[in-house]
Design brief:
- With about 300 residues, the protein is α/β, with parallel strands linked by helices.
- The protein contains nine helices and nine strands.
- Strands 1, 2, 3, 4, 5, 6, 7, 8 and 9 form a nine-stranded mixed beta sheet that branches.
- Helix 2 links the parallel strand 2 and strand 3.
- Helix 4 crosses helix 5.
- The relative contact order is 0.18.
- Bound molecules: adenosine monophosphate, zinc ion (ZN) and fe (iii) ion (FE) (2 copies).
- One fe (iii) ion binds next to loops.
């Protein structure tokens, strides 16, 4: 593969969380799409790392990572219509996967996700009895981080909706009548935990407004002061004007700007490599890491 043209995609999901391609298939898809650097960032787990590493082809580099489920201050005072916190996602790259705080928090979060999805499935089944709430976990094999897209697939299989995307519009979206919250990690704690484990924290899709409420950009400066290294600027859920705002802010406060597809296989319509990170930004992130190395295909 020509490294000069090789693309860098730093945010993808496999069947170890809510993607539809196995870690092995994801590596093959990445190579076919011309990626030279692939980051595997399943939700709240490092369970796919070894599987992806085992099939890494020559000419491709693997960044081992995860996407942490967090709760952040919004940066706005609480008002009757707007609580002062919001669920956010934090990407962590190249951290030591055996760091005790990370292991403990990932274990807690996966258990939290199981309970939360069970509750949501039961809520949905009240109005959509074609869904068998007790069978939803048939789609979540042992060792998988469960997420709303799994319930989305169950709704597609039951004939309630035509696609996972459609399931999110009325049924699964944050704040719907079926929605159940989970107890996520305070984002400040997650930043500190990842840094302590030798990793590099990057704030994922901070202005993905279509998903619901988002943070004020000022929160990024507060997190930069405690070790946040980068921010996802180019993301499929970011509007053009928000990308420009984030690019300017990143330069101002010293955050590395990244771009990534957030590929989920067939659970979303975005192709792998649809958004990419500049080589110098990637190198700047790698230079901050001391947990595990970037792997090179042999
Ligand atoms: P959860 O992690 O269980 O809260 O589910 C959130 C996940 O659902 C996100 O990480 C996205 O990957 C996915 N998601 C959010 N909105 C959509 C959508 N409209 N269509 C498909 N997947 C979505
Ligand atoms: Zn996801
Ligand atoms: Fe995310
Ligand atoms: Fe993601």
């Amino acid at each position: 593969m020509s490294s000069a043209r090789a693309l860098i995609d730093l945010h993808t999901h496999s069947t170890v969380s809510d993607g539809t391609e196995t870690p092995e298939e994801l590596v093959t898809t990445a190579a076919a799409a011309g990626l030279g650097v692939l980051a595997l960032t399943d939700h709240d787990t490092t369970g796919g790392w070894e599987r992806a590493a085992a099939v890494l082809p020559s000419g491709m580099r693997l960044v081992r990572g995860a996407e942490f489920s967090c709760v952040s201050p919004t940066g706005r005072p609480a008002t009757p219509g707007d609580r002062a916190t919001v669920a956010v996602h934090l990407l962590g790259y190249l951290f030591d996967p055996a760091h005790p705080a990370i292991v403990a928090e990932q274990t807690r979060l996966v258990a939290e996700r199981v309970e939360r999805l069970r509750k949501m499935a039961r809520n949905v089944a009240v109005d959509y009895p074609r869904l068998d709430a007790e069978r939803v976990f048939d789609l979540v094999p042992e060792g998988t981080t469960p997420g709303r897209p799994h319930l989305g697939r169950a709704l597609v299989a039951a004939g309630v909706v035509g696609s996972v995307n459609e399931a999110f519009v009325d049924i699964l979206r944050t704040g719907s009548k079926y929605y159940e919250p989970k107890r996520d990690t305070p984002v400040e704690d997650a930043v500190e935990m990842i840094v302590e484990a030798g990793g590099v924290p990057v704030f994922a899709h901070p202005l993905a407004r279509s998903r619901g409420r988002v943070i004020e950009p000022s929160v990024l400066a507060d997190l930069a002061a405690i070790g946040l290294a980068g921010v996802e600027v180019d993301h499929p859920d970011h509007a053009p004007e928000d990308r420009e705002l984030l690019r300017g802010l990143a330069a101002e406060i010293g955050l590395v700007p990244t771009g990534s597809s957030d590929f989920h296989g067939d659970n979303k319509t975005t192709a792998i490599g649809a958004e990419t990170t500049a080589p110098e930004a990637f190198e700047a992130l790698v230079a901050k890491a001391s947990g595990v190395p970037v792997l090179e295909g042999a």
